[in-house]
Task: structure prediction
Amino acid sequence: MTRLFQTNELRKVTLLDGMWDFTPIDTNDMNLGQLSYAYKLAVPGCWEMHPELLTYRGSGAYRKRVTIKEKTSLRFVFKGVSHTAKVYFDGKLIIEHYNAYTAFDAIVDEAEAGEHELIVLADNSFGEFSALHIPNDYYTYGGINRSVSMEELKSLFIERIAFTPVWENGGWRGIVQAYVRNIGVEEQVYRLSFELGGKLMDLGEGRAAAGSISVSEATFDFSEAEAWSPENPVLYMLKARLLADDADVDDLIERVGFRAVTTKDGKIQLNGQDIVFKGVNRHEDHPMVGSAIPLQLMAVDADLITDMGCNSVRTSHYPNDELFLDLCDERGILVWEENHARGLSLEQMRNPNFRWQCEQVNREMVEQHFNHPSIVIWAILNECASDTAEGREMYKEQLEQIRALDASRPLTFASHHRAKELCFDLADIVSFNLYPGWYGDEDPGELCDLARGWADASGGLGKPMIMSEFGGDGYYGHRDPSRVRGTEERQADIIEANLSAYTSRPFVSGMFIWQYCDCRVTEGTDWLLTRAGTQNSKGIVDRYRRPKLAYTAVQRYFKGEAKQN
Result:
């Protein structure tokens, strides 16, 4: 399953999820034709779930045989391969991709009828070739960890749709952009139409040059539309139809919502009303499935998050599976989504691959997840070198890139540099990762007041402020009246003290607890040695989603049951 709704009525789409052949490989000495596949692994899945591959880090080859009944062009869509991928069709390389957390596609023009071999090489090893994928405070699993599909296409098809809702003069309008791709050898003339909420719209005639993408854009009035909000998450099906030579050749369906996000007077507004984010940071991690979270477990996460009284989630520290974003759309859960970069020093940001790899993940994140009304904030570069002049230039470059791709959502980044931060003037929202009560004995309220002062003095004056990380370790089942560090009691005390401080301060526009669930981390040296059992144990629930004592503390504050000081 790739989405929670049907994305096509005309285009033939075959889901390739299931059991694939698999073998670990040495990429320095590899011949595709001589590979021997020793395993059958599930796709989506992570190879670490197999008892003989529990800690395997390196490269692996997946093989799947596909059959088509007639000559046609094929488009293979990979929702996620960790962490780099090379895809071969009948032994020919058709695509290479970097980054586990965004989708990519590969075109095979005019494939002959019959059986074909699809081979995917996945690699989750570390090295200078990867600037973003490093040993970190979460684990990068290996494998095809999100769904794969095969589409049969004409030479002209709709690659994607971008829908921007606009509230103006007391009514809703929609800006629709359709990207039509021509993989043929001649220019093609087409007509494009849309249906939204029973209303038909004709974008008229367009032309797509051979081997290029043509963009058709129009603005339509939808004054009768209902606004999307956490209380009323109304969604509409946007259906596009492509015609050439007076015949239907392709279609694409998206699901959209009407909502507007603004930042005014030091606060954040949704549809003109001030909002406060009450949320958690969530990693895609589970001991039974790794990062290949199935829909059933995503639904459990959404249920527990809302049961705690949360209205929001931060996708720390990478774009999330689109199925989870679909759930957030349906349930009215607000989403802060960010690119894939955590804790990089200036030296690491100087890696020659850093800029292009960030540019790619930023672009793919925004373009692929553009239509989700639940996503209300884009973010970049968690706890990187934003306290340096050279780092500032990279932050500026990336924020400008995302703003050019989507001007309808505010931008932020999570900083831990306190008074040394140099980039708050570049963002729309200032965000702090601070851990009073855990990494220090500071009072949460006093530290929050200091943070507001730091932001005001370093370019964030008048901007909304979010406490983007706070919390402490709590090992599930470790309860003791001493309330020492690591007990569930101490964790609950820390969370309660932080929430009491932040919910009582009107200048705080949001708080995201670190973190929703415990997660596996990379086994390593230096500070990673402090992660007992190679886990980050700051979850409000453990890796199996069992609530800790802090769970009820969160409920009291996020459901408004706690008394304010």
In short: Residues 389-405 form the longest helix (17 residues).
